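Escalation from tier 1.

The customer reports that the assembly of two entities below gives different C-alpha cells on two consecutive runs. Tier 1 could not reproduce it. I'm attaching the input and our single run for tier 2 to review.
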Amino acid sequence: MKPDAGTLRVVIVDDEAPARALLREYCEAHDDVAVVGECGNGFDAVKAISEKNPDLVLLDVQMPKLDGFEVLELLDRPPIVVFVTAYDEYALRAFEVHAVDYVLKPVGRERLDTAIERARERRRTAAPAPRPAALAAAARPPGEHLARVLVKDGPNVHVIPVARIDWIEAQDDYVGIHAEGRTHLKNRTLQDLAEGLDPARFVRVHRSYVLNVDRLARLEIQAKDSRVAILKDGKVLPVSRAGYARLRELM
Amino acid sequence: MHPLLAGRLRIVLYLVLWAGIGALLTGLSVLVAPRPVAHAAIFVGPLTLVYAFACLSAWWVCRSHPLGSAPPWRLGALLAGAALQSAGVFTVAAAGWAALLKSRAGIGPDRSGILRDLVVMFVAGFVLYAQSIVAHYLALAFESARAVERRLFESRLSAREAELKALRAQLNPHFLFNSLNSISALVGSDPEAARRMCHLLGDFLRTSLALGARARVPLGEELALAEHYLSVEQIRFGQRLAVERDVEVAAERCLVPPLLLQPLVENAVKHGVASRVEGGVVRIAARRRAGRLEVSVENPFDADAPARRGQGLGLENVRRRLEALDADSAGLQVSREEGRFRAALYLPALEAEDGDPATAGAPAEAPAPGSARRAVEEPRHEA
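Tier 1 run:
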C-alpha cells in the first residue's frame, strides 16, 4: 500500500488534552491512519485544517473561540468530518453539514473505528461537499440570529460582533463587511449572510447592500423614485424601491 | 349552572328527599284541614315539586353573598328577605292551585281550611328556603376548604419540584460523560491519574447525593463538594483551570440549603474558563458580615463568545430557591465587569445548634421555622 494514497490524514480538535490523547491512541492503532495535527481551540483548528488539508477531522463542538460548526463554516474546502462530543443535541446540525458520523463521549474504540471506516468509505465515493448556505445555517443555533460574523484572513480569524457592522456590500461571490472603518472580505453570498442576520436590525436596502439601521442618519431623494441612505459617518448607499419599502416597514 | 343539576344521580337523590318533605306537608295539611289524604296529596305534590327546584336558587344567593362579605345583621336581613320573598311566591302559587282544584275538580277544604293550608305553606316555604340557604353555605364552605387544600398542595409540589430540579441538575450527565472519557484516555497513558480521577469522581458523587438528602448543610461541606468537582475538572482542563479560595472560618459553619453553590461553580467552569483558550482562575470567597452570609464565585470569561443555550438556567434555579427560602434577605447577585463574571449569593447567617436534626442526615423536608436555629449576629467589620 502506497503511504500517501491510502493513508487517512487526520486532525484532532478538542479543547481537553485527555480527550485528544484518547482519539490519537485510537487512531494510531490503524496503520493507514496518520494524525497530522491536534488543536485545542477553534482558531487553531481553522489554521491547522487550512494548512494541513487533512482527509478527516475529529471535531468537538463546544470549544473556546469558535465552536465546531463555526470552524467548518470558515473552511474553504471542508474535509470529511466526524463530530466527537458529550452532547447529543447537535446531531441534527451535524447531519446538515454532511458529517459522516457523530460519536458520543465517552468514546469507545469500536465506535471510533466504525467512524473511521465511514470516513474511508466517504473518501472513496467522493460524496458532494455541503453547500455553503447549509454550513452557514448550521453555524448558528436553530431559531437564532447570528451574534457575530466570522471572517478568515489568511491563517487568522476575525470575529465581528454584528452590532459593530455598519453595512455589507456584495462583491461577486464575496461580501465586503464594513465595520469600524475596516472592510473584511468573506467568502459568502450576500443572500446567504443576510438570511442569518436579525431582520429587525439589518435591512437589504439594495440588491448589493445590507444596512445596519442603527447607522442610518437619513434618507434623501435624489431623483424621481430614486433614494439614497446617508449613514451617520457620511457614507452614501443606494436604496432600491424594494429596499425603501423594507425600510419603511421597519421604521 | 347549579352543581346539583350536573349529575342524574344527584337529582334523583334530591327529589327523593323532597318526596319525604312532600309527604310531611301532606300530613300537615290533612291535620289542619281534614280531608282525604289523596286530595291533600294532589294539592301538595305539584307545589312541593316546583318548590324543590325553586329552593336551588339559594345557591346563587349564597355565592353572591359569601359569609363575612357583609355585617352579620345585614346579611341576616338579606337572607331572611330572600326566604320571605320565596315563601310569599310559594304561598301565592299555592292559593292559585287551591282555587283551581276547588273550581275545576271540586277538590279541597272550605275557605277557612284553605287559609289554614296557606299559613302552613307560608311557614313551610320560609323554613325550607332557610334550610336550603344553610345547606348551600355548608357546601360552599366545604368546596372552598378543598380548593385551599389543593392550592396548598400545588404550591408545596412546585417548591418540591424546584428542589428536585436542583438535585437532578446536580448530576450533570455531560460532566459525567466527559469525565468518563478522560478516565478512558488516562487508563492508557497515566493509569495512576486515571485511578485518582475515579476516586475523585466517586467522592464527588457520594458527597453530592449525601448533601442532596439533607435540608441544610454547613457551607464547609458545600465547599468540599465544589473542591471535589474542581479537582475532577482540573484533570480534564489541565493548566487551564486554576482555583483560588478565600473562605472565612466563621462562614464555613453557616447552614445553607444543599447544592446551591454547585451550579455557580459549574457555571464558572463551563461558561467561563472553558470558553477561554488560556483558561483562568475560579475564585470562591465566603464571608459572614452582620448576620449575613455572602458566598461568591468569580471567573474570567470571553466577552466575544456568543451566549450559549442553557446559560443562566442554573443560576435562575438558584435564584428561585433563594427567594423561596426568604424573599427579603436571601438572593443572588450577578455582575460582569472587565471580563470577569461574578455570581454572589446572600442569605441570613444561621448556625447549627447541637443535635440539630436538619444537619444530621434527615430527609429533606420543608425547612422548619427558624426556631431550631439562631441567627448569628456579629459586630460589623469594615473592610
